[in-house]
Amino acid sequence: MNKSRLFLSSLAAASLLTASACVTDPNTGQRKVSRTAIGGGGGALVGLILGGLIGGPTGRIVGAGIGGVAGGVIGYKMDRQIKELKEQTAGSGVDVAPTDDGKAILVNLPDGVTFDVGSASLKPQFRDTLDKIAASMTQYPDSLIDVYGHTDSTGSDAYNQTLSENRARTVADYLSMRGVSEARIRSKGFGETMPVADNATDEGRAKNRRVEIKIVPVSQEDVRAARAASGQ
């Protein structure tokens, strides 16, 4: 009898968890299991996604003073931000998509519309688009932001590394100047080491010349874990 009651209680708890973990995806209008539930709770991000951030997550979370998003809505807010970013950057050449198994957002800034060849200065006509991306980041403040610079294989390794670093830093600095907390942002250049296409073709090289902005939402559990790890 006790075993039956325990089974029924466990079944009821599982049903409640499943119901509470379901959200409506603003991109499709369909009900689905939230990203947080899939990951086993927001705190799992510290060991999985946030661990891959530039400089690690703990000090960045504490230093940025992020409060974190409630675990039950973090996935919904991320889906909503993706939808809004897609609408705001439509027609600009920018690509917005989930990344890291749906735990982060990747905003891909193509080289042709962002920088001139060999330059780390933003094209004036692209600043309006980057303004909209910065506005989204201030509207959704509970996230950490990495900016990655990439080049094709044309030129020396040293030249490509420096160019990628400078371009990533230019974008990071611009976001900060547009009101995004500097403590949330880090930048890094990868030179030609992380191609997404074949450098043997013009089309492939164009795809490899890019700056990526990775937006990683932070949950309240992530914040508590980071503070505990830092002794706060």
Short structural summary:
The chain is built from 10 helices and 7 strands. Helix 4 (58-64) crosses helix 10 (220-229), helix 5 packs antiparallel against helix 7 (127-139) and helix 7 (127-139) packs across helix 8 (157-177).
Word description of this protein:
The chain starts with a helix and ends with a helix. It is α+β, with helices and mostly antiparallel strands and 232 residues long. The protein has one domain: OmpA-like domain (60s Ribosomal Protein L30, Chain: A). The radius of gyration is 20 Å and the shape is globular. The strands form 2 sheets. Strands 3-4-7-5-6 form a 5-stranded mixed sheet. A two-stranded antiparallel sheet has the order 1-2. The protein has 10 helices and 7 strands. The N terminus is likely disordered.
C-alpha geometry? globular
As for the number of domains, it is 1
Q: Spell out the CATH superfamily.
A: OmpA-like domain
| CATH architectural category | 2-Layer Sandwich
Rg over CA atoms = 20 Å
